[in-house]
Amino acid sequence: MIEKIDKKERMKIPRQVMPQQDPKERIHNFKEVPFGLSEEQALVEAARCLECKNQPCVAGCPVEVDIPGFIDLILQKDYAAAARKIKETNSLPAVCGRVCPQEEQCEMKCVLGKGKKGKPVAIGYLERFVADYERDNNLVELPKIAPSTGRKVAVVGSGPAGLTVAGDLVKLGHDVTIFEALHKPGGVLVYGIPEFRLPKAVVQAECDFLARMGVKFENSTIVGKMDTIDELFENGYDAIFIGTGAGLPNFMGIPGENLIGIYSANEYLTRSNLMRAFEFPDYDTPIIHGKNVAVLGGGNTAMDSVRTALRLGADNAYIVYRRSEVEMPARIEEIHHAKEEGVQFHMLTNPVKFIGDDDGKVKAMECIKMQLGEPDASGRRRPVPIKGSNFTMEVDLVVVAIGNSSNPLIQKTTPGLEVNKWGNIVVDEKTMQTSRKAVYAGGDIVTGGATVILAAGAGKIAARAMHKYLMEEVKK
Amino acid sequence: MPKVLDNVQIGPLNWKMKVEIPRLVAKAKAGQFVIIRVNEHGERVPMSIAGLDKKNGVLTIIYQVVGKTSALMTTVPAGGQLSDCVGPLGVPSHIENWGTACLVGGGIGIAPIYPIAQAYKEAGNKLITIIGARSKDILFYEDEHRAIADELYVCTDDGTYGHHGFVSDVLKKLLDNGVKIGMIMAIGPLPMMRVVSNLTKKYNVPTWVSLNPLMVDGTGMCGGCRVSVGGETKFACVDGPDFDGHKVDFDLLNKRLLAYKEQEKIAMNRFLKEPGCKLAESVKKFTYPG
Ligand SMILES: Cc1cc2nc3c(=O)[nH]c(=O)nc-3n(C[C@H](O)[C@H](O)[C@H](O)COP(=O)(O)OP(=O)(O)OC[C@H]3O[C@@H](n4cnc5c(N)ncnc54)[C@H](O)[C@@H]3O)c2cc1C
Ligand SMILES: Cc1cc2nc3c(=O)[nH]c(=O)nc-3n(C[C@H](O)[C@H](O)[C@H](O)COP(=O)(O)OP(=O)(O)OC[C@H]3O[C@@H](n4cnc5c(N)ncnc54)[C@H](O)[C@@H]3O)c2cc1C
Ligand code: SF4
Ligand code: SF4
Ligand code: FES
């Protein structure tokens, strides 16, 4: 065990740097970019934590992971216990340690991050370390499962929200089935976020773990097309959770958008991640390999797409974004990784038209330059086109990554389910209950595109309320 | 995993597969489709519903070998399994009593118009059915259609059976003779659906076609299946697959179907070279493009 050293000494320890694949090498493969901390590094990093009494970092985490608590267990070298500690409030630490925007959440609030030169404790790295340690060393223990309550729960969608609900409720003795439209569970974690950022084996391990706890998975089952919500009730389910995500891609609505070589980010990433088109022809699904690739948008989805394009052999991979870099919603780490890999950023630029060849393939994109005007409803300065600044970019592949709306299927097939004007399901935030009795919802289908941890957090709240409902109001 | 009960060759490149999948069959309606994946490395491919045995929970699909995945499908033995079969997808065909309805099926399209014909019939329509294929040995489902159609016309492009000519020629004759048709549903190769739509537009007879763009998820999540109808972009997997034939941009659809020509060739050639591949000869003899 590392000796507790005094505060001053601790503050002198530099933040550990996570080793990662060299940018020149990694743009030729789909392997994970950061390797994870070594045990030594994790111990040094954990020693930096001051174990603050008022725990500002905890307040920065949407699900209030006991950060100093788990870090203390790292110092005691009881990594499995550290992982269990995190799992008390966050069921997906191996995922969140990798993809949480820590710099705006837990780490932003860490006292060590204050001041110009301050560097917060690498909470995300540590979270990943303990979760990986636990999994790689087969230390994941099945939690105690409460005796069967005889109550049946259906979970619709297997993204982070659905997985969390299922895990929490199965532990409490309920009979839980997850219905998933695609052939693999995980939601965006499997079809959207690329292998080089979140290995699919990590997601699979989480799902396998739930299955071992007794959760049943019915993949390739679309609720609303197979059974509707009401039919699930008729089939004996006592409560239902809807975690169907935000899966309807937005397009620009400009001329030429249906040319070959223009993908939604969802299609591009699904082909590559879920269908493994990057391993074609060993896998059967093809994908277009562009030489000059433009990705439209500035979020995580855009970064994932543009970095995928590089790995599929692009000579030039561009981010085309209508605002400036400071407004980009992507995680700083991802923008940084993209830059290291040679992605070219065209800021304050907006496409107005796509131009195709005789075969209907995109060959160029006409853009217009933008400037920032007055702040808009989102508080960000509104981009306005600069007249006469049009120019043409040569491209042979375009990925549109300007966000998703909600898929209307469940809403359309469930009478009495209240939705707002964007089609998101309306819930009581304290319980995640919808306007329908015994129907709960959470994650992107409620908030619109957000984050993994917010979806998982919503799942936690829903599970608690559903348990109460099942035990108090469902008579068996 | 859905069980394959039967998988038999019914023509030089056409096969009929029966899949046991009761919960899907219970929900499925004429005009809808499913997406299947043969194995873990497989592509997701859409297939129309060509028959529904509600009692036994059995789905029939009829497919033509055109590339790697359809070729791979022929290798699944009776008693074998598919990795996945998801559905029913798409909006069921609109069914109504129009008095007289005309079904036009070309090539592999003869299959999906069959359950639609059944539904039209049940709704009380007089049924005129026109089916056609390139040649006699490619034709199938003639008896099935004959059993429910009030009038059946069969044609082959090469004149080896029935009328010598295209399904559209037969349809044109009917329309010229003043036969009153309330609704036409045409399913088949894209050029055939285009010709039929152009023809019926002149006669002002409402015409539905079932579009077959490339698809991935089939749930409205990817937008890969977008088609242009009346100048608006639609996702065929959730808004279709049936659309007003008079408004479809067939040219766009035709081009988009060729998006992966090169990779498809690579995949198919690799498959045909696999040891034990029994398809190589017949595929070479028939349609495989390239
Ligand atoms: C490319 C990309 C990168 C991202 N990167 C990050 C990141 O780095 N960090 C971060 O925190 N967040 C990131 N996000 C956001 C994050 O992934 C989402 O906020 C989160 O996954 C939402 O979880 P969810 O459970 O609500 O839904 P989803 O993950 O969207 O899962 C919903 C599931 O429901 C299924 N489904 C839908 N309808 C039905 C139906 N009718 N019947 C059955 N199943 C159905 C879908 O197939 C899907 O599997 C990213 C998103 C994308 C697209
Ligand atoms: C809603 C819908 C229903 C369908 N129903 C049937 C059916 O009942 N029976 C059947 O045999 N096929 C059907 N198809 C077409 C079928 O999905 C494709 O033939 C199949 O995906 C081809 O896969 P492949 O790997 O064998 O060929 P590929 O290697 O992918 O393609 C080989 C050749 O076939 C053409 N092709 C590929 N996909 C399609 C397509 N979707 N439509 C037309 N041509 C295509 C390509 O342009 C190429 O020239 C349907 C398609 C849709 C969208
Ligand atoms: S779940 Fe996310 S925000 Fe919370 S402590 Fe872990 S990394 Fe930080
Ligand atoms: S704020 Fe930082 S230093 Fe303080 S307890 Fe949290 S992680 Fe440790
Ligand atoms: S196939 Fe993906 S949206 Fe239609």
Residue-averaged pLDDT of chain B: 92
Strand order of the largest sheet of chain A: 3-2-1-4-16
Q: Report how far the terminal alpha carbons of chain A are from each other.
A: 51 Å
- The rough form of chain A would be described as globular
Describe this entry's structure for a reader.
The complex is a heterodimer of chains A (476) and B (290). Chain A is of the alpha/beta class. In chain A, 34% of the residues lie in helices and 16% in strands. Chain A has a five-stranded parallel β-sheet. In chain A, strands 6-14-7-8-9 form a five-stranded parallel β-sheet. In chain A, strands 10, 11, 12 and 13 form a four-stranded antiparallel β-sheet that branches. In chain A, helix 3 crosses helix 5, helix 5 packs antiparallel against helix 6 and helix 14 crosses helix 15. The longest helix of chain A has 22 residues. The N and C termini of chain A lie far apart (51 Å). By secondary structure, chain B is of the alpha/beta class. Chain B has two domains: 111 residues, Translation factors (Elongation Factor Tu (Ef-tu), domain 3, Beta Barrel), CATH 2.40.30.10; 111 residues, 3-Layer(aba) Sandwich (Rossmann fold). The longest helix of chain B is centred in the C-terminal third of the chain and has 14 residues. The radius of gyration of chain B is 18 Å and the shape is globular. At the A-B interface, strand 5 and helix 14 of A face helix 1, helix 2, strand 7, helix 8 and helix 9 of B. The complex binds flavin-adenine dinucleotide (FAD) (2 copies), iron/sulfur cluster (2 copies) and FE2/S2 (inorganic) cluster.
